[in-house]
Write a structure and sequence with these properties.
Layout (H helix, E strand, L loop, with lengths): L1 H11 L6 H35 L7 E2 L7 E2 L4 E2 H11 L9 H13 L7 H9 L3
Antiparallel strand pairs: 1-2, 2-3
Helix pairs in contact: 2-4, 2-5, 3-4
Length: 129
């Protein structure tokens, strides 16, 4: 009976939350989602890198028999690297720089460009990401 009374009181007099409190609650929620997304991107990028280059960078070439070979830890074609750099707004990055490739790979994954990597498509098909 007590629980019914409490339920009725809450129904008639709902807890009032100020707009400031709502913003803080939403802000905390948004931060939690951002952390989860960053963790997810980190895991996916590691899987793509492992599949593409086994985590190696220097001297790792792929697609040599194609007009546009891929290079490095993320196996990026030069044209794809500079295109992603341009659309991401990032500046002064170098195609053969390991850290720059990783940064652009993560940016691409965060922004719906994962399909550019064959390993990403394979991992999706397998249900691994």
């Amino acid at each position: 009976m007590f629980y019914i009374l409490i339920f009725y009181i809450l129904l008639v007099f709902p807890l009032q939350v100020s707009n400031a409190e709502k913003i803080l609650i939403y802000s905390d929620y948004k931060k939690d989602i951002e952390i989860i997304n960053k963790q997810k991107i980190e895991k996916i990028s590691k899987k793509v890198i492992q599949c593409e280059s086994e985590g190696k960078h220097d001297g790792v070439w792929g697609d040599k028999n194609y007009p546009y070979p891929a290079y490095g830890i993320a196996q990026m074609q030069k044209r794809t690297f500079y295109w992603l750099m341009d659309i991401s707004g990032k500046k002064n990055m170098k195609w053969k720089n390991k850290d720059d490739q990783i940064k652009l790979l993560k940016w691409a994954l965060e922004n719906g460009q994962g399909e550019l990597w064959s390993c990403y498509r394979i991992l999706v098909r397998k249900g691994e990401i």
